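B., you asked whether I could sanity-check this one before it goes into the benchmark set. Here's the sequence:
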Amino acid sequence: MGDFNGLLAYKKSFGLAMAIFGSSKRFPKEEMYALTDQIRRSSRSTNICLIEAYRKRRYIAHFISKLTDSDMENSETKGWLKFALACGYIDTKTYEELVNQSDEIGKLLNHMISNPEKYGSL
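And here's what the prediction gave me:
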């Protein structure tokens, strides 16, 4: 197995983080150190925790632990998206698109958590 760049979950989580970055550029300035920072951080952490998990795949328990961290960050991102929608910073269409991407990432992460042996050791 190659490096983490070949993982579909990696590609999709990177794409979601970048889509959120683009959308959050339009958030009000007063949200810069609150919602904007939080949603960017959690969406990026979903991706970064996945990279860390991949590097620990030799140790199944560590691999699964980091994958669950990634899944937790992905869930947090969905929570922040709900706030962004409720505050009127994103429209319903954007919200649904981003949440659907997050749901797909969650399914991929849960597949990895349930089937760690498919991701091999070093």
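One thing to flag: The chain has one domain: 4-117. Otherwise nothing jumped out at me.
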